[in-house]
Amino acid sequence: MKDSLKAKMAVVRQLKQAIRHPYAWPGGYDIFAYTEDGAILCSNCLKENYRLIVCEIYVGCSTGWKVCGFECAGNIDCGDGYEQYCDHCRAIVNE
Questions:
Q1: If you average pLDDT over every residue of the chain, what do you get?
Q2: Rounded to an integer, what distance in angstroms lies between the CA atom of residue 81 and that of residue 79?
Q3: 26: cis peptide before it, omega within 30°?
């Protein structure tokens, strides 16, 4: 029980970090989150839906907002001409 609470708190800390600092250093690449169902969320959507995401993490509301990880757009290779979009607002996240 104690370990799962620590894990949830760690995800919320990472969430706050991604909202406060939406770009990776060095490089200035976008930071984005991915949800349990594979959706990608940009930092603006993380900020706008913070309460829903935290509720999902701690309570398990089953709203589809459960963030399970974070990534830097510089770490993904989408190939030529392919862009990765936020699944909520359709903003490009791999610029």
A1: 87
A2: 6
A3: yes
